Amino acid sequence: MKKELTCIVCPLGCNLEVEIINNEIKVKGNKCDKGRKYAEEEIKNPKRVLTTTVRVKNGKYNVIPVKTTGPIPRDYIFEVLKRLAKIEIEAPVPQGFKVLEKIYQDVDVITTRPMEKRETTKNPKDNQNKASNPI
Length: 135
Fold this sequence. Notes:
Blueprint: E1 2-6, E2 15-21, E3 24-28, H1 33-44, E4 47-48, E5 51-57, E6 63-68, E7 72-73, H2 77-85, E8 88-90, E9 98-104, E10 107-111, H3 124-132
Parallel strand pairs: 5-8
Antiparallel strand pairs: 1-2, 2-3, 4-7, 5-6, 6-10, 9-10
InterPro entries: CPE0013-like_sf (IPR036593), DUF1667 (IPR012460)
Organism: Dictyoglomus thermophilum (strain ATCC 35947 / DSM 3960 / H-6-12)
Protein name: Conserved protein
């Protein structure tokens, strides 16, 4: 079986040709050893960093961006997404807040920005301007 990959380990972006013969992985096109290691890992156990959003209660916005602190197996991504879809966190939330802990080995899901609490007080002048200037 042959597969073509683009190495993402360094800025060179080598075009890799990976061939699997009798369970042995042969890699061509890599300019460094990192490319070979990347290709082998991508074939044996592909992993990705997951980025998505989680719902926020009483926040300035309805959702907050989150990501895994490291790569997780690609096959595990949809299971983590299902777990995150059931979660709603309460504002205020700091950046780096652990939404889920140790979802895979030592990998957590954390917030990537802070979330302020929604302002509930309104300026009376805003209401006057709207009343006097109907659209």
